[in-house]
């Protein structure tokens, strides 16, 4: 009897909380995070949620305090945690690019390559990864833990290793990137013992399917159009080759309806072309989940 | 001529405001609540909105200040208001379970059953319902009105009657539930005279159809998939029996498209099974309104 | 080679920011506005965004600091800017009515018509348009620039010219409208030189298609229903005449599926009628974009 | 041995919290209220603090849950609580006038005197006091409890009874005062049994001295000046007769220093006169406590 | 009879509001500004307060809407208002230096002197003063009104004229100061007619004395010490020459008490010296008002 | 020439920022911290301020990035920093007790003594001090770094080491203290080289005198009273023996004025006794600085 079994999962506390709630909502779960609570409720009695900072999540998954959790690849590496990485997730359209940890120096610094930091001091929140990075390159760089607002410290030490998505906050602080240390994406991870338990593994895998489907859906849209049969070929040629559109007959036999799921960045490119090719009644609609 | 007729409805002020705006939006209305206004605008000249606390809504509907309003069953009972209950509404996925008013005592209290509170004092916001509850059971319990943060008072008096959805805030305050006093869901209510006026009744009933449709849609999703005709039976068997999926033919005659509306909690269970049964191109999309 | 070409567009800072982000999201772009940044990121390397107040946007488009931008017709007029108006946009369901700049006086004022303000003082943020308005009517009214909270000043001077959408904030301040000065809707505007550059013009026009499609979609929904062939006519008659619904055959040949895109305000009216005409399985779903 | 004895006092939660903390600080206590805590810490081991709404404070003092507490005379009356009123306190310069509960109607109402409300409905938070007020006058007025924002309801019922300090929020809502129902000031109250216990009574009385001294000091200032002996009489005549200034000799025997404690509203009046009378080096300084 | 006479004064709305309330409090008035109100209450029936932005204050004083008001010299100049400047006020220790409007360019700009901006565009909130500045120097610079966040525009036009107190926000935006346009301090101003009315003039002058006294007191402290008569000379020599300390005899005839009012910036310098010169029991206390 | 010399000091960022600004203000400095700035301005050209988290302050002082700084003893120890501790400071009345880092376990835990944690896991922000603590006692306890909200983790690991001032937040989380690990107070620290530089040392020492004087003054008040000469002895006996009150003669020779500086906690005790002993005109006033 599995009715009373429960999977304990870690929800990231902080800047990722809102998009995690949204991800679970698309996946079909009502995850309810109160502002000061650490035990969000969820409408699945087989799940129990606890909030942790992304920075420490993998340690609690490794220790077995959690069966599974969501965190970033960067912090798994920083903690050196031995966990099973179930799948990668892309969290939002805005951050679908991987986050990058970069080594940066003040614009006016003489350092042009990482070798120029030899003998210097670097501040970062990602201490272990950074130390390893310099050691592997045979460089003697003192790496100090920075409690937040690292970019402000770039002028007080020799350089910093900081997270950047677009590079714009580095620019705003007049910093220059010298190298990329680590590229990171969100991950759904599991404790190794938990993953060996058949019931837990199935629960983890189902959750992975739903979360991945929800994650995929963020960057995609549904597109529907009507087109005269004689123009169908032209229209189909505009659609990316790898897609298999659903073509359905309409009451008016001269026309068919074409429906396809595609990347939003593609959709916004081809819509004008489709119009020119004779498509009409084009609509684009949002998706909760896409499972190919 | 009905052109100048207006239905006056009460919108709940407070924690329900945001989800009410969302409910009206799905129902097809742009309800616009400014942060300090008490007269939200709405894009239907036949509607006039006024905000009241859910606690006092039913009194103003009973008195005829309002023709109709949204509030909870608990406060209708507390006020003992004589109003017409047009329909029940479920407000959100997260709170689709009814809210429960429970009698709770400190974990360390000796009270195990309600009889143990005889001669004691209980604090609550729901004074009348609580008094009646004890009276019906022949118990002599002094019931005092509590101005908020009732759970903090549990250790100062003998027990409290407090609202709970998941029981987690009771737990956080180390309280133990002894009994459930009342279970409550949101209601759309109408003034009895207003409901006897033909024009108002029709307006109220139309609104009820739209609000219920919107309310239903919150817990549901649309699911679409393609499947080879030979696998259709297998796929249909996975879908809950009571659903009647829309099956449409595709250009490729070996395949059909299946579309169905179902509960999100069901959908998240069967998606992996559908995949295994040969379904492809599964997408899940959100709904504004569902009218069966 | 156009790969490195960039179009610089102005995003309105202030009350329109959130709905602009939403508009771009529906249009298919991830526009990312950080709370204090003036250079929002966007996932299209051919676009570069800068934030300006709607009030000054058209001046920077005219000067060529920006190639294009989003602002209101009122501020284009106020600045007297010579720009190309690419298209009109409706920003949200709640504000799909044009915003109106009205001349208002205290309820108790003796002024009944604009002539009664001759020789008086009027406060407004829209100084130039207001001055021109009075001059054209041969009236001598001193028009003073008001730094915000103009409605409070109505009792200190003789009248104000203020923006209103529903008239409710005027009412709350006990003001009475005497005349409408200007009606305004959001506009997508372009610098004249930029619009003459073929690459920029194409980029601007594509953006216009997507933004207009997204803007249209806000007030519209998709509606789908099943109906027996014998009832089809009845159902079709209920739908607004100008719509061309997509009718598709179902597996059960006695039934067809009808799908149509229509205004939300229409949909909420006809849903009960459709039900009475024999339609079943009615669902309403949200749209990102509608291109007729 | 009294070392382990403790007096339990109630601190008002809500709009009075900040000024209560300030009052205790002037009185010499570090009262530390965390944002969500209900048990503020205080640097006196003989005191234990609990937070309650002013509205319910007197009930908990009467019941003995608290030994003493700070609340308003209005809520003592509303609850009909049998408590010992230790002393009156004035809470701040800004609110040194008593708060008034007034019966108000819309400006445009026909009601001119309270008799005109006979047979009508009045909304208020102060239900019991209001009911008694109408009963004593032989008027049949239905008095309904209002959950906040009472002034908005004035146009939905016949009148309201609402708290006002300056009358300005009534004005902003276009209401007109018909009568004053109750005038109220803050009170330090004690449970009757607690007050009969000698140790508690002494503790309560000491606290009362300190709180009153701190409360007095808010509206007062210290004033110091130098004056030639020959002008002393003139200067003394300007000072309010009932004050006994401290006159001290200076090194320069022709001059004396005059120091006096007086009301801030008096001080601001006489400072220019003192200057004209020959006083120099006038300084005004703040006070924590004044015990005459 | 002057009892019903009222002086109408303008209180600056915005960043100066809090320090104005503090200034009035030190001056002896309880000025009570609610968050959304425009008519703050004050505990002097002869005063009536209205809030305006500092930017427009002088215009309403000039027009007679207000009898007097507090604003900055910069905005009096910008509006070209003909008002009586009653006195200068320094608002706080932190901002006791005058605010400076400076012409700034990006660090990397080629412009080194104001002549280099000839033919260019400058953005500023202080349009009129800036125009006049360039005209007086015979330079042709287009001066555009900037709606806030001017420093962000420095790279979009040729330069900006912006307010700075410490220069640090210019630095943070990598701007370089080329010239100072205007130096400004807060002023208490009066309408010319109002100032000619004897009752109003006396009220204005009294207010000026109190506000100036309060304003002076912010940068000053009281210092008291005991010293043996034989060391008195040494101690007195350390005190700034222009001060006349109050020396009073003590019970112990060998000692005297010295009391003096002095600038905080001086006090913090000489305290260690006083200690070395034999002073003991040194205390420093805050002041509400200082009238020399 | 020292005119251009500058001392660089670190200001703690976070919960201590407000009280540090207040401390500097009492000390005589206008320290101006903008919400997002890291370089607060100060009205002393010989000082330059930078903000750091208290947790990392001592590292930057040790490295010489800063000449001096304010932080807690706990973080000096945690970082193992070799710095000169100039003086101890007490930061506020409310927190004049040292902060304590305690080892705590859930109330229901079996652990009663630290030995019971042998072999277990402990979460804390103070990793190094905690590790050393267990090592010195020969216990094998895995100490993990906790990113905030440590008290929530107490039930996930075996125990926590957390900061507490009153023990109340531990209580709220149902934790029990097993031992005190470290007691900590704020410190003013200096870099060793900087302290060897004569100019910097003098600047640091002067600052220390002022900050200590300001720090002392928080817990103290000035008390002044008048008393008849014949009662003087009685009054003096009530005052703590170690104080030397300033007694000054009054114009009325039968009376003297007594003035004394004393602890607020003492003052609130003796005020009633002084009254009984014949003292009159008792006033208590706040102090900025006390240098004995």
Q: Can you walk through the features of this model?
A:
The structure is a homohexamer of 292-residue chains. With 292 residues, the first copy, chain A, is of the alpha/beta class. The first copy, chain A, is 32% helix and 33% strand. The first copy, chain A, is built from 10 helices and 17 strands. A 5-stranded mixed β-sheet of chain A has the order 4-1-5-12-6, with helices on both faces. The first copy, chain A, has a 5-stranded mixed β-sheet with strand order 9-8-10-7-11. In chain A, α1 (17-27) packs across α8 and α2 crosses α3. The longest helix of chain A has 20 residues, at 198-217. The radius of gyration of chain A is 24 Å and the shape is flat. The mean pLDDT of chain A is 90. At the A-C interface, α10 and β16 of A face α1, α7, β14 and β17 of C. β17 (289-291) of chain D pairs antiparallel with β16 (280-285) of chain F.
What keyword list fits this structure?
homohexamer; about 290 residues; alpha/beta; five-stranded mixed β-sheet; 17 strands; about 30% helix; about 35% strand
Q: Mind summarizing the main beta sheet of chain A?
A: 5 strands, mixed
Largest interface: A-C, 30 and 33 residues
Radius of gyration of chain A: 24 Å
Mean pLDDT of chain A: 90
Low-pLDDT ranges of chain A: none
Any idea what the shape of chain A is?
flat
- Helix-and-strand structural type of chain A: alpha/beta
- The count of strands of chain A amounts to 17
Instruction: Report how far apart the termini of chain A are.
Output: 33 Å
Q: Tell me the helix content of chain A.
A: 25-40%
Strand content of chain A: 25-35%
- Reading the helices and strands of chain A in chain order gives EHEEEHEHEEEHEHEHEEHHEHEEHEE
Strand order of the largest sheet of chain A: 4-1-5-12-6
